[in-house]
Amino acid sequence: MTLFFKFDFNAICQIVLEQILNDNSIKYKSVGFGEIEVLEKLSKEKQDQLQNALANYQIDIVENQKSILVQKIKDTIIDMVFNEDVVVNVKSSVYLAETLEHSYGYLSNLFSEVTYTSIENFIILQKIEFAKQLIIKQEFSLTEIAFRLNYSSVAHLSTQFKNTTGITPSAFQRIIAKRRALIQQNKTD
Fold first, then answer.
1. What stretches of the chain show up as alpha helix (H) in DSSP?
2. What is the DSSP letter of 166?
3. 189 residues of the chain, pLDDT tens digit each
4. How far is residue 107's CA from residue 49's CA, in Å, rounded to a whole number?
């Protein structure tokens, strides 16, 4: 049996983080996505326990200032792309600069220095990942998906989708439809 899942990445991360902090009896205040303020002094032993518990979920505590800002850039981009409540009516460069209170040039250079890729490429990867999720859900047309992701047209979405995945969104839709048909057929056999 194959099951398909629909999930909110941000909500899952927040729930996992809160569960780990509560399980380790750590008093905290949530500051923002991927950022918490610990309201007590943690012993080295408690810090190690927290680090180990987080590692089980591939979550790391970021300590270097450059890495912290790069993580904030990533979190802001992910929130901008995946969160339906965030409506961005300006260029992503302006949104990032205003949200993170740094010039876009500085953010862009830092991001490239630390990750060896550009902010633009990271945004495209996130948009294509979200487009794949939306296609799998089958709730929206390609036109609606392109609009939701701030593409100027379906053709623009299709070009970036193909450049990133190697196939067009339409081909991806057909693959998903065939998989569902096979699963349905296997259920009836």
1. 9-23, 44-55, 65-82, 92-100, 104-115, 119-137, 142-148, 154-165, 169-188
2. S
3. 677 777 777 778 888 888 988 898 888 888 766 677 888 888 888 888 888 888 888 888 777 788 889 989 999 999 888 887 766 667 889 999 999 999 999 999 999 998 999 999 999 999 999 999 999 988 889 999 998 888 989 999 999 999 999 999 999 989 988 888 888 887 776
4. 33
Which DSSP string do the residues of 17-69 spell out, in sequence order? Answer: HHHHHHHTT--EEEEETTEEEE-SPPPHHHHHHHHHHHHTTT-----SHHHHH
Which of 79, 80, 97 minimizes the C-alpha distance to 89?
80
Residue 124 CA to residue 12 CA, distance in Å, equals 22
> What's the rounded Cα separation, in Å, for the pair 173 and 131?
11
Helix (H/G/I), strand (E/B), else coil: 123 = helix
